[in-house]
């Protein structure tokens, strides 16, 4: 069988499909990392809120035990505000991470489309090769039949002459 004329293109499409699959896999892994980081930040925020409540309650109990002075209450208020500021900072990081997750999801979807397109292109060239092989086989069969027919005719004519 003669070599397939578009074998180079078939090889290129095969490589493109493999690369698209690898890029999709990498995008999925990146998305999972971003989601894990988001979950970690959300857990951190919840932990800080719990700790703030516990610390404020403990501080209030300590201030009450010593005798509640206006100065002690002001210090407690500043302490609580500082803890709330830290929580707000973590909440801001959570929002940034949510955006990073959205970006990663868009990248995954884009890689999925690229992978589907590469698979479709590879399938088309494979279908072409399959059709070409059938055509070459059919042409070879036709030539073989023609050769057999010519041999048969030659033998027949040779017998007729005797």
Automatic annotation (TrEMBL):
Organism name: Myxococcus stipitatus (strain DSM 14675 / JCM 12634 / Mx s8)
Presence of the UniProt keyword Coiled coil in the record: yes
InterPro entries according to UniProt: Flag_assembly_chemotaxis_eff, YscO-like
Record protein name field: FliJ family protein
Gene3D superfamilies in UniProt: 1.10.287.1700
Keyword Coiled coil on entry: yes
Domain of life of the source: Bacteria
Coiled coil start-end: 17-62, 94-149
Lineage per the UniProt record: Bacteria, Pseudomonadati, Myxococcota, Myxococcia, Myxococcales
Keywords attached to this entry: Coiled coil
């Amino acid at each position: 069988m003669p070599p397939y004329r578009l074998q180079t293109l078939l090889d290129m499409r095969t490589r493109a499909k493999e690369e698209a699959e690898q890029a999709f896999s990498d995008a999925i892994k990146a998305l999972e990392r971003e989601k894990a980081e988001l979950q970690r930040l959300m857990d951190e925020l919840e932990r800080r809120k719990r700790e703030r409540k516990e610390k404020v309650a403990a501080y209030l109990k300590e201030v009450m035990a010593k005798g509640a002075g206006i100065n002690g209450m002001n210090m407690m208020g500043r302490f609580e505000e500082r803890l709330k500021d830290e929580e707000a900072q973590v909440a801001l990081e959570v929002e940034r991470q949510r955006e990073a997750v959205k970006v990663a999801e868009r990248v995954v979807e884009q890689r999925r489309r690229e992978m589907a397109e590469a698979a479709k292109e590879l399938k088309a060239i494979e279908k072409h090769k399959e059709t070409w092989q059938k055509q070459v086989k059919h042409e070879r069969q036709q030539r073989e039949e023609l050769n057999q027919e010519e041999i048969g005719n030659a033998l027949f004519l040779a017998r007729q002459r005797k």
